[in-house]
Structure formats: structure tokens, C-alpha cells
Amino acid sequence: MNEEYDVIVLGTGLTECVISGLLSVSGKKVLHMDRNNYYGGESASLNLEQMYEKFRGKDVKPPTSLGRSRDYNIDLIPKFLMANGKLVKILRMTGVTRYNMEFALVEGSFVYHKGAIEKVPVTPTEVAKSNLLGFFEKLKAKKLLSYLYDYEQTNPKTHQGFDCSKDSIDKVFKYFGVSDDTTDFLGHAVALYTDDSYMTTVPAIQVIERMKLYEESLNMYGKSPYVYPMYGLGELPQVFARLCAVYGGTYMLDKPVDKVLYDESGRVIGVESEGQVAKAKMVVGDPSYFQDKVRKTGKVIRVICILSHPVKSTGDAKSVQIIFPQKSTGRKHDIYCCVTSFTHHVAPNGKYIAIVSTTVETENPEAEVKVVLDILNPIEEKFVYILDTFAPLDDGKNDGVFISKSYDATTHYESCAEDIVSIHERISGEKFDWNKKPPQPEEQ
């Protein structure tokens, strides 16, 4: 360890593993350390015995009724990948898909509306068939969707008097006269905003781009815009760790970080661990390694449930995402529920893993998601996970320390991918090159 590196990466969460893989591919000498003895950090997938040890204590063993421990790969955070989203593009451009990564299509995307679970309508044809909207509202929604999907910033003929690079989406919604029901499912279940602030705080073009991403991802496979890795999300950090190692990166698990070292000017110069020092001019890590350089942004609750049945009103789907928009539950933030099952090799035959997540608003977080837990009943086992979330105080350019953001409550990786791209651009000083292709090394 007593060597000099270009970059030291702390923590093996997905963000950190993708960064180390990208940097290693670009020729950087990378040392990657984690205090845990497994890959993934907060984005790991655990077997049943590991889940009981983490949430119940070392002496508590899972009941035999739940099946074999090794048949479980339970995600600690609930995330799907948009089929045409940024993370999938990073997977392709780095070539990690050659490392035996398999993905399965998520069978359905649903939204909770007036006490019922409904399929998310995206195209004008789906809107016409949806139970979410009445007859006259469907006509308005179809006109709105046609306008949004036809809109091109460089083609004034598609603008109809709007400049969506400046106008808010609220202004567009009001022009087409659509109801709150329409804006609710478009903004939260399609554009995937977590609250209603987007209506007036971002230009409409950003909302349109999010909706187009959803539509493009949906059109790739048909049933939903989401894909999910076989054997759980814990596979993702591991393939990027392998990519880093193939290009010369050094990995150390179960390695404590005693101190991050700085020079007199406050710029990072390395990391100390068990009396050894590794030198580097840049350090990347998750917030847990830099408590003095992050600010608390809130709390997230995740309730991990084991079921022996599909979720009702989803057509017996083996995998789904269900979004509970804030207005439908009387909250400030949406609630998310993602379901995977034995078909993805994350649970024994006949078992389902449902993970409920949201941003905490009260002193009783579990009560905040009761509406979802009631729908999931009967629940065989559940693990309640409440975590503080953090963001870095600065961008890292002055001290050479680049810190990732905590994983949010959403059930997709778009915000995580944006954080990855932002960190990489700050480290490299260059715009992220989405067209860059890695060389094909011969694996040793």
C-alpha cells in the first residue's frame, strides 16, 4: 500500500465503482479501498443470513420457512435502470456487459391513483385506454402528449408559441387545460420528479427530455422502460470493480481508513490505514468517509419485504415499479415500491422482494409508508432501514476530494448516473464523452 497513486477511491458503492472503472480505463493508477468485506456498500445485495445479521443481530437466524439463504440476493436500495438511461449507456461504453452481465425486463410500470393501482399511460394510444382519466380529459392529455413528444427546440414549427428552454412546464400544462390527475402521472410516474417543485423551477425542456427518455426506454422492449440485473443490483459494483482491476486498479476490501491526509494548504495528499500510507493527489469516496465535508440533506426510509405472492392489481407481474405520487397520499414526497422475484434469482421459487422507499417527513417514518405496506400484505418478513442522506459541501476542485451524494429514495438510477458524470467531469476537467470506446485488453 505504501505507493503513490493517481486516485484513491474509498467505498465500493456503485458510484465509487463506476468512477474507479472509468478512471482506470483512462489510464489512471487507482487504489480502491473499502472498510467492508463485501462489494457494493449501501448498494450491495445480501443473502438472507446477511440480512438477518445486519438487521437482527449476529445470533438471529432466519426461519426455515423462508427457504435457503443462498437463494436470496436482496438489494439494500431499490433501483431499476432506465433501458435507454445514462447508466445503461455507461455500461455499454465501458464494455462491462461482456462480464456475463444479464438483465431482465421489468414487467410493468404502475401509478397509485385514488386508491387503485393503474398502469402508467405514456403514448396517446395508452392514454385513450387508461382508467386514470375521464373521456374529455383524455382528449386534452392526448393533445398535450402529442405536442410534448413532437417538440424540438431547434424547430420553431413545433413550438406553438412556447420557448421550452425558458417557459415552465406549468405554463404548458395550463395552456392545454389538463387536470391535476394528468400532471400528476406525467410529472411523477413518467418524468420521475419526486415532488411538484419542477412545475415552476426548471425549464419545460428538461421535463420534456425526461418524458422522451421514458418513452424511448419503453419503446425498446414494450412492457416497461426499466431493466434489472439478474442476481440483484450488487452485480453492478462488482463488474465495474472487475473493469478497474483489468486495467491495473488495486482493490482492498476489509481495509479500514484511519485518516485522510492533507498538506498545509488543505489539499489532499493521501490516505492512512493501519500504519501504512498511500499517496495520491485526488481522493474519491462516499459521504461516510468525509463527515466533516458533507451536509445532511434529509432521511430516507426503505422497507424491504419478503412476500409469497405478486402485488395485487399488477396482473400477477413478477417485477414492477409502483409510484405513489405525493398528492395521492397527502405527502410532500412520492413513495416508491419496486418488486423483483424468483425470476431474477433474487429469491427462492415463489418468493417476491418488495422494497418501499420515500423521503422521511415525520418522526414516525414507517407510518408514512403504511398505505403501501397495506397493499403488499400479507408480508412474511420485513426489514426497516432508515438512513440519513448527505451531499458534499463543495465540488472538490480546491482540495482534491470528490464526494458522492447519498442514494435518494427514487427507484431508478438516473440521479445516481448524473452524480457519476458530474464527479468524472470535475476530476478530469473535461466534458463527459458519451461516445468514447475503451480499448479491449486481454484479461490476465
Automatic annotation (TrEMBL):
A cellular-component GO term for this protein: cytoplasm
GO biological process per UniProt: protein transport; small GTPase-mediated signal transduction; vesicle-mediated transport
InterPro entries referenced in this protein's UniProt entry, alphabetically: FAD/NAD-bd_sf, GDP_dissociation_inhibitor, RabGDI
Gene3D superfamilies per record: FAD/NAD(P)-binding domain (3.50.50.60), Guanine Nucleotide Dissociation Inhibitor, domain 1 (1.10.405.10), Guanine Nucleotide Dissociation Inhibitor, domain 2 (3.30.519.10)
Record-level Gene Ontology MF annotations: Rab GDP-dissociation inhibitor activity
Pfam families to which the protein is assigned, alphabetical: GDI
Highest taxon listed in the record's lineage: Eukaryota
Similarity remark: Belongs to the Rab GDI family.
Protein name: Rab GDP dissociation inhibitor
